[in-house]
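Notebook entry, structure prediction.
Reason for the run: the old model in the group folder had no record of what sequence produced it. Starting over properly, with the input documented here first.
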Amino acid sequence: MFKKFFGSKNSTQPRQETDIDREISALYAILVDVMGSDRLVLQAGKMDALRYMRSPDPAERILALRRILEENPTLYPPPKSSEIQSQIVLLSEMIADIMARRQIEDKIERKINEKLEKEHQEYVKDIRMQVLREENNSESPHDQKKREELQELEEIHLTQSVMELLRPKSLEEIVGQERAVKSLRSKLSSPYPQHLILYGPPGVGKTTAARLVLEAVRGKNLSPFGEDAPFIETDGTTLRWDPRDVTNPLIGSVHDPIYQGAQRQLAESGIPEPKPGLVTDAHGGILFIDEIGEMDIMLQNKLLKVLEDKRAFFESSYYDPTDEKVPPYVKMLFENGAPADFVLIGATTRDSSHLNPALRSRCAEIYFEPLTPAHIVEIINNAAKKLNVELEDGLAETISEYTIEGRKAINILADAYSLALDRAEEKILHIEHPIKIEKRDVYEVTQVSRLYQYVTKKASNKPAVGHIFGLGVSGFLGSVIEIEAVVFPASEKGKGTIRFNETAGSMAKDSVFNAASVLRRVTGKDIHDFDVHINIIGGGNIDGPSAGTAILAALVSAVTGKKIRQDVAITGEISLQGKVRPVGGVFEKAYGAKQAGIKILIIPKENAKDIPKNHLGLKIFPVDTAEDAFKKIFAEPLEISLAKDAQIEKISSTIITSDELNHLGIGN
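New structure, fully documented this time:
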C-alpha cells in the first residue's frame, strides 16, 4: 500500500533499494500510522509535495517529508547527498516529537472526559438531592442549629456608626460646596436630566450630595424621578470586566444551564438564565458609581452602549428561540433586553484623562471644590452639636491644620471624643454637662495616626530678600511653592555661575533661563557678573512653566537687594519679553494660597476670567507684564533701569546661548 501511494511513477524498472531508501520508506510508513494515509496525502497536496514523494531521488523524497512536517511549501532545494543522512536523523526526531505529543494529547483528552463524566454525575446527584429536599421539608438538626444561630445574631445591634450619625441629612448641611450642589440640583430637577461626572478630592461630599439631591427632587412637578425612584450605589474599584462574560454585576450576565447555577427547571431543559445587573436595578432612578475613574476601560465602553440603548442585551449559545419550553420572561430578556433607563452619576478623585472620552462627552461635568480651613472648622462645629460635646477653644482650628477632607476631620473628632470619654470619670457620664474634648486629645490622635499638618508653609507680614511664594497644582489641590535665590559677585566679572536644584524638573530650569534673560532687561545687570543659587525648597518637581515669574522676582530681589512681601503668591509663565503668560489650574492654586495664609494672589491677565474676584477672600490682581507684578510683589519701589530705545531691541532679544549656559554651570 505504501509503494502504491509513494512509489516512483517514472521508473519503468525496479531500482535496487538502498539502506537510505529503506530508512526513508520507514519514515513514511511511521507518518502514515501517525496521520493516516488520507490525511497525509491531503497534507502533501497542500504543501506541493506529492510530486517529490513519488520521485526515485531520495533527496527529493526527503524534501517532501520536510515540507509536510514543517508545513512550508516553499522549502527548496533538496538536500545534497552529503546532507541526506543528517536530514534523516532530523526528520526522525521531528516524527518522534509528533508521536510524543499525540500520546500526551490522548492522555489529557482521556482525563478531561473522565473529569467531565464525574462532574456530570455529581451534578445529577445534586439535582436528585435537591428534589428529595424539596419533597421532604423537614429540617435536619444541623440545619436547625445553624438557623437558630443566625436568629441569635439578628438580635444583636450596636449603636449607629459615628459617620452615619454625623453624615449630612440635608443639602444645607453640605459645607463648602454651594455652587456644585446648586449645579447638581438644577441638572437633576430638569425634565431632561443629564448624566453627570463629579470631580473633586476625597471627603468633600460628592456621594452625599448626589443622594440628597435625588431625595430633594423626587416627585417634583418637573422632575422625571418618581417618589420611589431608586438610588443604586456601587464602587468602580470593585467592578471588573470579565472577558468571558461569565459574570458582570454592572451590566448583567447569562448563567448557562449546566455549570453556572441556573434555576433547576431551566437547567433540566437546557435553558440559559439571564441575570440583569445594576443598570436594570437603577431603571427610573440614579446609578451612582463612586471612583468611576478606576473602572476598566472595556467596562466603560459597555456602560456607554447601555446609556445609548437604554437597555442591556444578553446573548447565549444555549438560547434557542424556537424552544417552546423557554419561559416568556427569558424570551423577553433575550429578544428585547432588560430596561436600563437611568441617570448616571459618576464620582472620581482622578482627572478626566482616566475616563473614556466618549463617556465624558455624554455627561455634564461638575467640579467639587477643596475645603478650606474655615470649612473644616464649620464641619467640626456642626458635628460637635450632633455629638453634644463641648470643644476647647481653638480645637476646630487645630483639626483644620491636619486635613482638608471633611470625612477625615470627622474621624479625628470622633477619635478625640473617644479619648475624652475614656478620660472622664464615671460620674461625669451621668450629669447633664456635656463631655469636653481638649486639644491634647486631638494631638494624641494625630500622633497615633501619624498625621502631619497639611499646610507647613505659612505666609508672613515680614518682607524678605530673595524669597517668594509660587503656586503649583496636583490633581484638584493647589499648593504653595517656596522659591529662594541668593547671589554673590563673581570672582571674575563675566564668569559667574548658576546653581539650580535638578529635581525641580526641566520646565523649571527653562524658567530660570528665561528669567536670566529678562533680568538684564528690567535691571540692566548682567547675570554673568554673579554667582547665583536658586532653590525650590523641598525639592518638589515643577512640571510646568508657571513658576517663571516667581523665579524672576526672586532673582531680581537677590540682585537688587529689594525685599519681597511674604503675604503674596504669584503664578504665571514669564516670556523673554517680560510678559506674564497664562497658566492652568489657577482656580485650584487659589486654595493652596488660602491654606498658606496668603492675602494677595497675582495671576496672568489672561487668566482673570478663570477665577471669581475676591475668591476665598483673596485680593486677586491680574497682571500683563513683570513690571506690573513687581509693583505688587516688592515691599518698596523697585527702580527699573530700562534700556533706551536704541538698546531695547538688542537687550530684550538677548538670549543666553548654549555655550554661555555651559559656562554658567546649568547647560544640558
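Summary: Confidence is low (pLDDT under 50) at residues 1-6, 8-13, 641-658, 660-668.
The old model has been moved to the deprecated folder.
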